[in-house]
Amino acid sequence: MSRRLRLPLLAALAALLFAPSGPGSGAARAAEPGTPPGEPVVVELFTSQGCSSCPPADELLGELAMRGDVLALSLHVDYWDYIGWKDTFASPPMSERQRAYARTTSARMVYTPQVVVDGTEEMIGSRRPAVLRAIEAAQAQPKPVAITLTADEQVQIAAGDAPPDGAVVWLVAYDHHRTADIARGENAGRRISYYNVVRSFERLGHWTGEALSFPVDCDSLIGPNRGAAILVQEGGYGPILGATRLQPKPR
Question: pTM here?
Fold first, then answer.
């Protein structure tokens, strides 16, 4: 069974556990070899090393991470750390992002493994048919916001029709592949592989319909096991209006 936690309890636990104590411009391309340019469907998996029902979802996300038409992201939450194992990739901002999605959709609880597709549709992350159907449906709705990366490493957000409250421009940094040897908790004794493990979501700015430009240091963000992407997301936690991977400037 997937693990679920009601929001009031989650807030209390979080408060307890984490109290202060080439050249030219063009579409950004994927850092991964062989990944084509384009606007991938964004699949976010909220997972935990302490969740026994999460490994099948982690495995599915690994398959999706190999697809050029999908930006698969693994976000490790920290609210299960109290049950016997502290997730080595988890951080409070990942849990807060999931809570924000719950508030946006008026959901009464958060849980793992949960998948959110393009910021709009959520489901249990191990339910392959449902996840694949949601990806296919998202592909039928092209993203309205164009994102490009110039030769001098400026991310450009094109002018367009913005939602009433605008959209947040996120810079997402992640590791392509990580493994964890889990010594305690529900997955004790297992070595589990994780894919596109998110290190950070950085808010670059707010898009209100006018063209925007942000400098990014791709060389510091991207390496043999590191990737980065730009998301334009309504309200910060609503529909994803634009998405693209970044790659280093050609040398």
Answer: 0.85
